[in-house]
Design a protein that fits this description.
This protein has about 350 residues and is of the alpha/beta class. It is about 40% helix and about 20% strand. It has eleven helices and 15 strands. The strands form three sheets. An eight-stranded mixed beta sheet has the order 6-15-14-13-7-8-10-9, sandwiched between helices. It has a five-stranded parallel beta sheet with strand order 2-1-3-4-5, with helices on both faces. A hairpin with a 2-residue loop joins β11 and β12. α1 packs across α5. The relative contact order is 0.11. About 5% of the residues have low confidence.
């Protein structure tokens, strides 16, 4: 497999060396050139072809956001991975970059536990580079229409059901923009309980929740321990923590923990879904699996199907940034429908009003 050519744009010589090392350790890519600011990165893109750009959010002369805008306008097919500091102002800038079309982001390794953090960065880059290789080699074989999956899993819905007790959503790479698309498509009278898992580090989910809350008809918050699950509220699992469900009497609350990583991520959709399968046993659950790498959510959907009346929508391949999580659900026959992203919000409301 030919290694990807990477353009690395970062004004810090220390982090250029660190990120270059992480790229080389993946054995899937090589840093072909470097730039110390956004203007130089643009000039290099004008004269050479690169498979991916690693772009620091904070640079002199032309910052990461402005550089990204120019790249997306002139080299839209070139994937851009942002390099972010840990939380704070960088988190806001990074979320904005994702909204503008960045593929994903990595967080710079901290000095504390440097080797472990370097390994995390390297492993994540490895997954992203593998995905970019796949995107470069695959051919588009999409139908012009959405399709209903003829799954081999026993569908618990014998009759139409429109009184759903809970809506659950899982997403990863490409998820922030997919969530924005979905949530802003919900009408003002949407009053269902919504729980969301988006793979992100601490603090980034808080910023994401704030951003989504501004465009959504329903309230969107980052979850805190013992928050009540209530109608008209979407709760996002906090980055770096798992979210589960607890029940006292008739009231459902969320619980937050820092247990071990599942499927290499924390928060994990499987952790939340399995908890819901136990606490909401026999209830009607509407699940949506959006764009993302890996298979997180697969085991959880299986348990929801076994223990609840679970109807599952997956995002269509042609509208996914990364068709990993939805693909796993599809291939296991657990998806009831595969739908283009811009139609999911309307379909959710249709199902809730008229049944599945």
């Amino acid at each position: 497999m030919k290694k990807l050519k990477v353009l690395l744009a970062d004004d810090s010589i220390v982090y250029r060396k660190i990120i270059t090392k992480a790229v080389e350790l993946t054995n899937l890519a090589v840093v072909d050139d470097v730039a110390t600011n956004g203007n130089l990165a643009i000039e290099k893109l004008k004269t050479s072809a690169y498979d991916v750009v690693l772009l620091d959010v904070n640079m002199p002369e032309l910052d990461g956001i402005e550089t990204l805008k120019i790249i997306k306008k002139n080299w839209n097919k070139t994937p851009v991975i942002m390099i972010s500091g840990f939380g704070g102002k960088d988190a806001y800038i990074t979320i904005k970059a994702l909204e503008l079309g960045a593929l994903d982001f990595i967080v710079k390794p901290l000095e504390e536990n440097y080797d472990k953090n370097m390994e995390i960065v390297m492993n994540y880059l490895k997954v992203l580079f593998n995905q970019i290789h796949m995107e470069k080699s695959r051919t588009n074989k999409f139908s012009d229409k959405n399709h209903i999956n003829k799954n081999n899993f026993k569908n618990n819905f014998k009759n139409k059901v429109n009184k759903f007790d809970l809506v659950v959503i899982a997403s990863s790479t490409g998820g922030p923009i997919a969530l924005e698309n979905l949530l802003k498509g919900l009408s003002e009278d949407f009053n269902k309980k919504v729980l969301i898992v988006q793979h992100m580090p601490p603090d980034f989910t808080r910023v994401l929740a704030e951003s989504l809350d501004k465009i959504s008809a329903i309230k969107v918050v980052e979850g805190n321990d013992f928050d009540k699950v209530r109608s008209g509220l979407a709760i996002i699992a906090p980055g770096g923590h798992h979210m589960t469900i607890d029940k006292k009497g008739s009231q459902f609350n969320i619980r937050i923990n820092s247990d071990k990583y599942i499927n290499g991520v924390r928060p994990s959709a499987d952790v939340l879904f399995k908890s819901i399968a136990k606490k909401y046993k026999g209830s009607n659950i509407l699940s949506i699996i959006l764009t993302g790498m890996g298979s997180d959510g697969l085991d959880g959907i299986r348990e929801l199907k076994e223990n609840c009346n679970c109807y599952c929508i997956t995002q269509s391949e042609r509208t996914c940034v990364v068709y990993g999580m939805p693909r796993c659900i599809e291939e296991e026959g657990l998806s009831d429908e595969s739908i283009d992203l811009d139609k999911i919000a309307d379909r959710i409301q249709q199902i809730i009003r008229f049944g599945s």
